[in-house]
Write a structure and sequence with these properties.
The complex is a heterodimer of chains A (about 140) and B (about 120). Chain A has about 140 residues and is of the alpha+beta class. Chain A is built from three helices and five strands; from the N terminus they run E-H-H-E-E-H-E-E. Chain A has a five-stranded antiparallel beta sheet. Helix content of chain B is about 45%, strand content about 25%. In chain B, helix 1 runs parallel beside helix 2. Chain B contains five helices and seven strands, in the order E-E-E-H-E-E-H-E-H-H-E-H. Classes of the chains: A alpha+beta (about 140), B alpha/beta (about 120).
């Protein structure tokens, strides 16, 4: 018999006032799913970046909701972040050059750079009027 | 609401040590405060600053941005900024974002002050 994946979902207003609440949900979910050590840290950091992006940029006028779904499958954790802001693909952001001297360093693009390095897959889809950003971490080793 | 950013400051052997008290540096609003504080210290004449990250377990990229901006300011003023007591996760963030090439990182405060101090 197939094992049903464990899944947690949370939806709230995409506002900095709800950041602690969102973090509590993420940490609780990962602990319940028994995600530990390095995987836990990488997922938390990546979700901090993805969630903050939505909060800061998805709704410049009236704040609407952010939905987070965390699912554990056999060999991976998949996290889906959904908002109904203007179409925005974070993967379009160019990779920053992190090798240059301080006077030449640009300060943008570090969040997506961290996500690209700490997660195994990042996918963006526009579905209807929603941005759907999926982050995947292989917990049985990188594919 | 997240806690406001908190620092403890001390001076040892000519090294201005800034202990960041917050466990989490995630809220982007706090990064502006951090940038202002770091740049303010440099503009006020601090020549050697050590940032103790020992209490910090999570950090987001907006704070790396603060460190880069402070590093630019330090460069203009011929000052130095270094870091100590990074957790493995935060050190990994420094390496991924190239901050380890911009700033000296010490295992602990003692080693940092011994090398940076007068």
């Amino acid at each position: 018999m197939a094992v049903k994946p464990a899944k947690f979902e949370f939806e709230t207003v995409a506002d900095l006032d709800h950041l602690d609440e969102i973090n509590s949900f993420i940490e609780m979910s990962l602990k319940e799913l028994d995600i530990q050590d390095e995987h836990y840290g990488h997922i938390c950091v990546s979700l901090d970046e993805a969630v903050t992006n939505v909060i800061m940029y998805a709704y410049p006028h009236k704040k609407e909701n952010i939905k987070i779904a965390i699912k554990k499958l056999k060999d991976r954790v998949s996290i889906k972040i959904i908002d109904s802001g203007a179409p925005f693909n974070p993967l379009d952001h160019p990779t920053p050059d992190v090798s240059v001297k301080i006077e030449d360093r640009l300060v943008g693009g570090l969040g997506i750079h961290l996500m690209r390095n700490m997660m195994d897959e990042l996918n963006y889809h526009r579905i209807g009027d929603k941005n759907c950003f999926t982050l995947v971490k292989y917990i049985g080793g990188k594919k | 609401m997240t806690d406001p950013i908190q620092f403890m400051e001390e001076n040892r052997q000519g090294v201005s040590i800034l202990h960041i008290v917050n466990e989490r540096l995630i809220d982007p609003n706090l990064s502006d405060t951090l940038t202002r504080r770091l740049c303010g210290l440099i503009e006020a004449g601090t020549l050697c600053m050590l940032i103790d990250m020992g209490a910090v377990t999570r950090i987001s990229s907006v704070f790396f941005r603060s460190f880069i901006m402070a590093g630019k300011k330090a460069n203009e003023h011929k000052a130095k900024i270094a870091f100590c007591n990074l957790t493995p996760l935060i050190k990994e963030g420094f390496i991924i974002t190239g901050l380890d090439k911009l700033f000296k990182i010490y295992d602990n405060e003692g080693k940092a002050v011994a090398e940076l101090g007068e």
